[in-house]
Amino acid sequence: MRKTERFQVKGKGNSLWNLYKSVSFFKVMKNFVVIQIARYTPSFKVKNWLYRNFLRMEVGPQTAFALMVFPDVMFPERIRVGKNTIIGFNSTILAHEYLIDEYRIGDVVIGDEVMIGANSTILPGVTIGDGAVVSAATLVNRDIPAGAFAGGNPVRIIYTAEERAIRDENNLKV
Protein backbone atom coordinates (compact mmCIF):
# COMPACT_ATOMS: atom_id res chain seq x y z
CA MET A 1 0.00 0.00 0.00
CA ARG A 2 1.27 3.47 -0.88
CA LYS A 3 1.98 5.85 1.98
CA THR A 4 -0.41 8.76 1.46
CA GLU A 5 -2.33 11.15 3.66
CA ARG A 6 -6.04 11.24 2.85
CA PHE A 7 -8.22 14.36 3.06
CA GLN A 8 -12.00 14.30 2.70
CA VAL A 9 -13.56 17.10 0.64
CA LYS A 10 -16.82 18.76 1.61
CA GLY A 11 -18.78 21.17 -0.49
CA LYS A 12 -19.90 21.32 -4.09
CA GLY A 13 -18.14 19.34 -6.78
CA ASN A 14 -15.34 16.82 -6.72
CA SER A 15 -12.00 17.26 -4.98
CA LEU A 16 -10.30 18.74 -8.05
CA TRP A 17 -13.07 21.34 -8.34
CA ASN A 18 -12.11 22.32 -4.75
CA LEU A 19 -8.38 22.32 -5.55
CA TYR A 20 -7.59 25.81 -4.29
CA LYS A 21 -8.91 25.00 -0.83
CA SER A 22 -5.96 22.60 -0.49
CA VAL A 23 -3.20 24.55 -2.27
CA SER A 24 -2.72 28.21 -3.17
CA PHE A 25 -3.53 29.29 -6.72
CA PHE A 26 -0.38 31.43 -6.75
CA LYS A 27 1.80 28.50 -5.64
CA VAL A 28 0.38 26.35 -8.45
CA MET A 29 0.85 29.16 -10.98
CA LYS A 30 4.48 29.78 -9.92
CA ASN A 31 5.27 26.04 -9.91
CA PHE A 32 3.69 25.59 -13.33
CA VAL A 33 5.84 28.35 -14.86
CA VAL A 34 9.04 27.00 -13.26
CA ILE A 35 8.26 23.43 -14.37
CA GLN A 36 7.53 24.53 -17.94
CA ILE A 37 10.85 26.37 -18.12
CA ALA A 38 12.70 23.36 -16.68
CA ARG A 39 10.97 20.87 -19.01
CA TYR A 40 12.49 22.58 -22.05
CA THR A 41 15.85 23.51 -20.50
CA PRO A 42 18.65 21.29 -21.85
CA SER A 43 20.98 22.06 -18.90
CA PHE A 44 20.79 19.59 -16.01
CA LYS A 45 22.47 22.08 -13.68
CA VAL A 46 19.88 24.76 -14.45
CA LYS A 47 16.98 22.31 -14.05
CA ASN A 48 18.26 21.06 -10.72
CA TRP A 49 18.82 24.65 -9.55
CA LEU A 50 15.25 25.58 -10.52
CA TYR A 51 13.82 22.51 -8.78
CA ARG A 52 15.84 23.06 -5.60
CA ASN A 53 15.38 26.83 -5.30
CA PHE A 54 11.87 27.47 -6.62
CA LEU A 55 10.07 24.16 -5.99
CA ARG A 56 11.95 23.10 -2.83
CA MET A 57 12.53 19.61 -4.22
CA GLU A 58 15.47 17.63 -2.84
CA VAL A 59 17.66 16.75 -5.81
CA GLY A 60 21.01 15.01 -5.42
CA PRO A 61 24.19 15.91 -7.30
CA GLN A 62 24.61 14.61 -10.86
CA THR A 63 20.93 13.75 -11.09
CA ALA A 64 19.55 14.20 -14.60
CA PHE A 65 15.95 15.04 -15.46
CA ALA A 66 15.52 14.44 -19.19
CA LEU A 67 13.54 16.79 -21.41
CA MET A 68 9.81 17.03 -20.71
CA VAL A 69 9.88 15.46 -17.22
CA PHE A 70 6.91 16.76 -15.24
CA PRO A 71 7.30 16.85 -11.44
CA ASP A 72 4.22 17.44 -9.31
CA VAL A 73 2.92 20.98 -9.84
CA MET A 74 1.02 21.23 -6.55
CA PHE A 75 3.32 19.60 -4.00
CA PRO A 76 6.82 19.35 -5.55
CA GLU A 77 8.40 19.80 -2.11
CA ARG A 78 7.21 16.23 -1.38
CA ILE A 79 9.62 14.82 -4.03
CA ARG A 80 13.12 13.66 -3.08
CA VAL A 81 15.57 12.32 -5.68
CA GLY A 82 18.99 10.95 -4.75
CA LYS A 83 22.36 11.42 -6.41
CA ASN A 84 23.38 10.26 -9.89
CA THR A 85 19.82 9.31 -10.83
CA ILE A 86 18.23 9.55 -14.28
CA ILE A 87 14.57 10.39 -14.80
CA GLY A 88 13.68 9.53 -18.42
CA PHE A 89 12.03 11.63 -21.10
CA ASN A 90 8.42 12.69 -20.54
CA SER A 91 8.08 10.98 -17.17
CA THR A 92 5.68 12.27 -14.52
CA ILE A 93 6.29 12.30 -10.76
CA LEU A 94 3.09 12.85 -8.77
CA ALA A 95 2.91 13.68 -5.08
CA HIS A 96 -0.87 14.14 -5.14
CA GLU A 97 -4.01 12.56 -6.52
CA TYR A 98 -7.45 14.13 -6.57
CA LEU A 99 -10.40 11.72 -6.44
CA ILE A 100 -14.15 12.38 -6.30
CA ASP A 101 -14.62 12.74 -2.53
CA GLU A 102 -11.02 13.05 -1.33
CA TYR A 103 -7.51 13.94 -2.27
CA ARG A 104 -4.30 12.20 -1.25
CA ILE A 105 -0.79 13.53 -0.79
CA GLY A 106 2.31 11.40 -0.37
CA ASP A 107 6.08 11.72 -0.44
CA VAL A 108 7.93 10.30 -3.43
CA VAL A 109 11.41 9.09 -2.60
CA ILE A 110 13.72 8.05 -5.44
CA GLY A 111 17.07 6.71 -4.28
CA ASP A 112 20.63 7.08 -5.49
CA GLU A 113 21.71 5.75 -8.90
CA VAL A 114 18.17 4.93 -10.00
CA MET A 115 17.20 4.73 -13.66
CA ILE A 116 13.61 5.65 -14.56
CA GLY A 117 12.76 4.87 -18.19
CA ALA A 118 10.98 7.29 -20.52
CA ASN A 119 7.23 7.91 -20.27
CA SER A 120 6.94 6.45 -16.77
CA THR A 121 4.49 7.69 -14.15
CA ILE A 122 5.34 7.59 -10.46
CA LEU A 123 2.36 7.85 -8.11
CA PRO A 124 2.37 9.54 -4.69
CA GLY A 125 3.57 7.68 -1.62
CA VAL A 126 6.08 5.37 -3.29
CA THR A 127 9.76 4.76 -2.63
CA ILE A 128 12.16 3.54 -5.31
CA GLY A 129 15.26 2.06 -3.68
CA ASP A 130 18.90 2.78 -4.49
CA GLY A 131 20.15 1.25 -7.73
CA ALA A 132 16.71 0.23 -8.98
CA VAL A 133 15.88 0.27 -12.69
CA VAL A 134 12.34 1.06 -13.86
CA SER A 135 11.64 0.25 -17.51
CA ALA A 136 10.05 2.71 -19.92
CA ALA A 137 6.29 3.34 -19.83
CA THR A 138 5.91 1.95 -16.32
CA LEU A 139 3.20 2.93 -13.84
CA VAL A 140 4.95 2.88 -10.46
CA ASN A 141 2.07 2.34 -8.04
CA ARG A 142 4.02 0.61 -5.25
CA ASP A 143 7.49 0.60 -3.71
CA ILE A 144 10.43 -0.78 -5.72
CA PRO A 145 13.15 -2.43 -3.63
CA ALA A 146 16.78 -1.37 -3.92
CA GLY A 147 18.57 -2.91 -6.91
CA ALA A 148 15.43 -4.38 -8.46
CA PHE A 149 14.52 -4.24 -12.15
CA ALA A 150 10.82 -3.41 -12.48
CA GLY A 151 8.38 -2.56 -15.24
CA GLY A 152 4.85 -2.74 -16.54
CA ASN A 153 1.45 -1.26 -15.96
CA PRO A 154 0.96 -1.70 -13.09
CA VAL A 155 4.58 -2.22 -12.09
CA ARG A 156 5.87 -5.66 -11.20
CA ILE A 157 9.31 -6.80 -10.11
CA ILE A 158 11.03 -8.49 -13.05
CA TYR A 159 14.31 -9.22 -11.25
CA THR A 160 15.27 -8.70 -7.62
CA ALA A 161 18.70 -7.25 -6.84
CA GLU A 162 20.03 -10.78 -6.24
CA GLU A 163 18.60 -12.13 -9.50
CA ARG A 164 20.04 -9.15 -11.40
CA ALA A 165 23.48 -9.79 -9.91
CA ILE A 166 23.40 -13.49 -10.94
CA ARG A 167 22.12 -12.59 -14.40
CA ASP A 168 24.81 -9.92 -14.88
CA GLU A 169 27.51 -12.32 -13.65
CA ASN A 170 26.37 -15.01 -16.12
CA ASN A 171 26.32 -12.50 -18.98
CA LEU A 172 29.92 -11.49 -18.23
CA LYS A 173 31.05 -15.14 -18.57
CA VAL A 174 29.70 -15.46 -22.12
From TrEMBL:
Alphabetized PANTHER family for the sequence: ACETYLTRANSFERASE (PTHR43300), ACETYLTRANSFERASE YVOF-RELATED (PTHR43300:SF6)
GO terms, molecular function: acyltransferase activity
Keyword Glycoprotein: no
Keyword field: Acyltransferase, Transferase
Classification via InterPro entries: Hexapep, Trans_hexapeptide_repeat, Trimer_LpxA-like_sf
Organism: Sporosarcina gallistercoris
SUPFAM superfamilies: Trimeric LpxA-like enzymes (SSF51161)
Name of the molecule in the record: Acyltransferase
Source species, domain of life: Bacteria
